[in-house]
Design goal:
The chain is α/β, with parallel strands linked by helices. 42% of the residues lie in helices and 18% in strands. Bound molecules: adenosine-5'-triphosphate.
């Protein structure tokens, strides 16, 4: 790990600061030479300063190697405040939202291991809406380029991981043109990967099938909104959203965040589960290790993954969302102990 990394971090809103602080402690442990750069944004920042992000946020974000990001709050009833999450994704062109979901022994009801590749900048999230009298219209945009790059990411991942099947989730029976284009592009890209089996499933059937038998899926690729909804469903199958992390990948910087949101109901109480955020940081180590050809970082990613498994599955250090009584700090300290044992 000779290279010195610059890691940006956004504390975020709600439980964000609690879980980000936990991760910074773990990351400093695993990447001792890393420079940590704070980037400020979010609803709390907006309330203090009148701005949703600091002026040079995007410049700083483009200069770091990767970003650890806590959840950011978008108040549903304040039309003057546009989602910072959506802005960051669009401005940094983070087109792939990669969400690995793996069951935990002793917690999840079913055993499974699947990854959702959610297209992250198009669909309903382009932010083009209008009200015409009593009619409100939101534009849904699917482009061939957008569909192509997320599908290619999903197939490339499946190939590298030695998997067999990739499944596209769509509703092309009703949304014949937009989801029709997504579906067709998926099968076009599939031709570049003759060793993999391309499969398709309608989104409502996918929802049912995921609840009934999640173990049948390996890699799912979806337009933006379906991926958003299905991720929470599979997070529920894992046992808690607090256990799941995600990677937002573009062609430049990657952003690593938990799947969960700001969880205002438990914010400030010291009981937020940091595992989702820790899992996201594990994905960051993997991503940087692969991108920069750094085998030591890859080894440390696997040490972190294993430490999380031991703490949850063997030691039962559980926060209340898992039915336990431990706090954020207890989980963090236990993970660091396991890392120290392995390093
Ligand atoms: P947002 O508006 O940002 O999506 P939300 O509160 O609607 O926020 P989540 O933050 O995803 O949605 O929370 C959904 C539920 O899961 C809440 O009851 C919350 O307390 C719980 N939860 C989410 N993340 C965690 C976590 N890390 N640890 C413990 N509980 C969590």
């Amino acid at each position: 790990m000779a290279r010195r990394y610059r890691i940006g971090f956004v504390r975020g809103d709600g439980i964000g600061p609690e879980v980000v602080d936990a991760v910074l402690e773990v990351v400093s442990h695993l990447m001792p030479g890393a420079e940590l750069v704070e980037l400020q944004a979010g609803y709390e920042y907006y309330r203090r300063t009148g701005k949703s992000m600091e002026d040079d946020f995007l410049e700083k974000a483009r200069e770091v190697d990767a970003i650890i990001k806590g959840p950011l709050y978008t108040p549903p009833h304040d039309p003057s405040f546009r989602s910072v999450n959506v802005l960051i994704r669009r401005e940094l062109d983070l087109y792939a939202n990669v969400r690995p979901f793996r069951s935990f022994r002793g917690i999840s009801q079913r055993q499974f291991n699947l990854v959702i590749f959610r297209e992250n900048v198009e669909g309903e999230y382009v932010g083009v809406e209008g009200v015409f009298g009593d009619v409100a219209v939101s534009l849904r945009v699917i482009t061939r380029r957008g569909a192509e790059r997320i599908c290619r990411q999903a197939f490339s991942y499946a190939k590298a991981a030695g998997l067999k099947r990739v499944t596209v989730v769509h509703k092309a029976n009703i949304l014949k043109l937009s989801d029709g284009l997504f579906r067709q592009t998926f099968f076009d890209v599939a031709k570049e990967f003759p060793d993999l089996v391309p499969e398709e499933i309608i989104v409502d059937t996918a929802t049912y099938a995921l609840v009934k038998s999640p173990e049948k899926f390996q890699v799912l690729v979806t337009p933006n909104l379906y991926g958003d909804i299905l991720s929470d469903l599979v997070g529920g199958l894992v046992g808690s959203l607090g256990l799941c992390g995600s990677a937002l990948i573009g062609d430049r910087v990657g952003v690593f965040e938990p799947v969960h949101g700001v969880a205002l109901d438990i914010a400030g109480k010291g009981v937020a589960n940091p595992v989702g955020m820790l899992t996201a940081s594990k994905l960051m180590l993997d991503h940087l290790g692969q991108k920069r050809g750094d085998p030591e970082l890859l080894r440390r990613a696997s040490i972190l993954d294993n430490a999380i498994r031991v703490v949850i599955e063997d030691r039962g250090v559980w926060t209340p969302d898992l039915g336990g009584r431990c706090g954020t700090r207890d989980v963090t300290s236990a993970v660091i102990e396991e890392i120290d044992r392995a390093l």
